[in-house]
Amino acid sequence: MRHPVMAAVAAVGVSVLTAVVGVPAWAADQADKPAAIVVKNGATQPVFDYGKAINEEIWVEVPLDTDGDGSRDRVHLDITRPGETETAGLKVGSLMIATPYQGDFVDVPYHSVDPERLPQEKGAATRRAVGGTRAGEARMGDAEEGYPEEGFWEYFVRRGYAMITMDSLGTARSTGCPDAGGPHEAAATRAAIDWLGGSGRAYDAAGQVVSAGWSARAVGMYGVSYNGTLPLAAAVTGRSALKTIIPMSAVSSWYDEYRANGLVVAPYLWQGEDVDIHAKVILSRENPQVCAAAMDRLTREQDRVTGDYSPFWAARDYAAKAAKIEASVFLVQGLRDWNVKTKQGIQMWEALGRHGVDRKLWLYDGDHGSANAPAFFPAMRRWIDHYIYGVDSGIEDEPPVTFEDSAGAVVETTTAWPVPGSARVTLPLAVGKPRTDTFVDNGRNIVAEELLQPSGNSLAYLTPALTASARLSGTPRVALDVSIDNRTAANLTALLVDYGPSGAEPIIVTRGWIDPKNRGSLSRSSALTPAKTYRLGWDMQPQDHTFASGHRIGVVVISTDYDYTLRPLPGTQVSVRPTTSTIQLPLVGGHAALNF
Q: What CATH number was assigned to the domain covering residues 422-593?
């Protein structure tokens, strides 16, 4: 890891005292001075009185006019900092959470997900139907858990941090218009960071220009979901005062949040949502009607017809821009998160590794939210102390990957993910004489969990029973020889399934989707000829899962996935050649792990 040197911290005026053996003479001489960050046993200490903290609100000017009112947008910040920053000249680092969820949510109709035919099918008829509405809760809210009893805010202020909440662009007390993780929200977040770094302009409630003279020009960001996504958006803008981020269940590519290999795909439980819906829900600023044109532009540019990757999505693809990240990154990802899916955390983890960015990964066996293990917050605190104040907290000596089980216990630490020893194993879906298997789509009426046994609406291919456990660690991939017999467009879905002993409910381990029209390119759809066989390959969501001895590994092929894809009328006929189709499994131990 790149270690921020103490000299750099001192250069911006922070006094850091240490009580460990070998304390420098200059620090010992200042031990009785209250205006200093105190470090003991590798951690900042709670030496500041939270009751004397300063609370202020300011508005940072953004170099954009996204609402077109002729004035630059401004984002609102609530700041709590130690009183000594005012009375004794103390300069402190900052922890900021940028959030769209401080205002009231707006009732917004969903997009219809029940067309007669898929919109990418030429000449397809669409039935205008309004889905449900989103209100009263945020799909990507800030559900921080497992923090200290005294409160997250108080904990860090007492240890010499300024704690900041930023209302993201177009929300609550900020102006401007949201653009769903796009360049405008990134620029607005960056403007707040730059102000804390000594540049830019900000105003108080009276309209007076204010500076962050108390700032040590070292900023960290953290948050769950959208609140963890905005730190990634800011980090890919390049070098700044941002020193570290802790994104939890965060989006690293908005394309992969709402699309999958050319298909329109929803986050779990939010069918019909897209970037425009989410932006409209959080548009809680005063006079939201001034953003009508910006919202219409999102609806046009997101393209719910072809599902192609486009400049619109590239502007919201942080993993593709990881080379620009200068801050360290502590990623937290749920292995059962079907809202912000596992691909989001893993593709960023891999991109950071390719570009040599300081990184840590915490994988927890749970759904959308954050880690629950008692060990998580101390690790987070050590990370923050290290990267904001240069504290030798021991975090550099810890394994970079941590696994937390469903009970909230740390069960494993490793040097990498996929875990060391993982190797790809390719298996045919079936053996024997070449054949063609056919099913008819009825996913509009049947959920995937009810299609795990072979039926006229799905195909299922199982290995023999394992005689020893086998651990999957990585990203499975399917390659199917398939034809769509009576349509020029279709959904295709593959499910990786854990089949237990007779009578046990099968478990969907992971899944993946593709639009056959995007078989050659994410960015360009190609015509599909009915009844012609195509070789289609696509990734499933990354996963870490152990198939127990006696269980069988299964691949189930369906068309429409009720909870995720658009749901055309039943009747699409799909044919698969299983003996030439394959599943590629990343297994710990490779082929040796498969004992049949």
A: 2.60.120.260
Q: In terms of Cα–Cα distance, which of 420, 468, 423 is closest to 591?
A: 423
The single residue of 368, 422, 515, 544 carrying the catalytic annotation is: 368
Residue showing tokens 């730190």 = 231
Q: Which element (helix H / strand E) includes 348?
A: helix 342-354
pLDDT of residue 145: 43
Task: Choose, from 337, 441, 515, 561, the residue flagged as catalytic.
Answer: 337
Say which residue the tokens 């060990």 belong to: 375
| Domain chopping of the chain, boundaries | 6-414, 422-593
Alpha-carbon distance of 457 to 7, in angstroms, equals: 66
Q: Which residues pair with 57 in a beta bridge?
A: 78
Residues present in the chain in total: 596
Q: Active-site residue 225, yes or no?
A: yes
Q: Locate 142 and state its tokens.
A: 């800030």
DSSP-assigned states of every residue in 84-105: HHHHS---EEEEEEEES-SS--
Task: Count the neighbouring beta carbons within 10 Å of the beta carbon of residue 43.
Answer: 17
Q: pLDDT of 441-484, one tens digit each?
A: 999 999 999 999 988 999 999 999 999 999 999 999 999 999 99
> Do 312 and 303 touch, CB atoms closer than 8 A?
yes
What token pair was written down for 325? Answer: 């990240």
Burial per residue of 448-464, b for 16 or more beta-carbon CB atoms within 10 angstroms, e otherwise: beebbeebebbbbbbbe
Known catalytic residue: 337? yes
Residue 176 half-sphere exposure, CB side, CA atoms within 13 Å?
Answer: 29
Using CA atoms, how far apart are residues 344 and 526, in angstroms rounded to an integer? 27
Q: Please report where in the chains the tokens 């993946």 appear, as a residue.
A: 512
Identify the active-site residue in 15, 94, 168, 225: 225
Residue located via tokens 């077109």: 68
The DSSP bridge partners found for residue 244 are 220, 328
Q: Answer yes or no: are the C-beta atoms of 456 and 438 closer than 8 Å.
A: no
R_g of the chain computed on alpha carbons:
26
pLDDT tens profile 192-210: 999 999 999 999 999 999 9
d(CA 419, CA 335) in angstroms, rounded, equals: 14
Q: Tokens in use for 213?
A: 């003279």
Yes or no: domain 6-414 corresponds to CATH 3.40.50.2300: no
Distance CA 379, CA 387 (A): 12
The answer to whether domain 6-414 and domain 422-593 are alike in fold is no
Model-wide pTM > 0.90: yes
191/414 Cα distance (integer angstroms) = 37
Q: What token pair was written down for 411?
A: 């069960």
User: Is 458:545 a contact under the CB 8 Å cutoff?
Assistant: no
CB 278 within 8 A of CB 180: yes
Cβ neighbours of 136 (radius 10 Å): 8
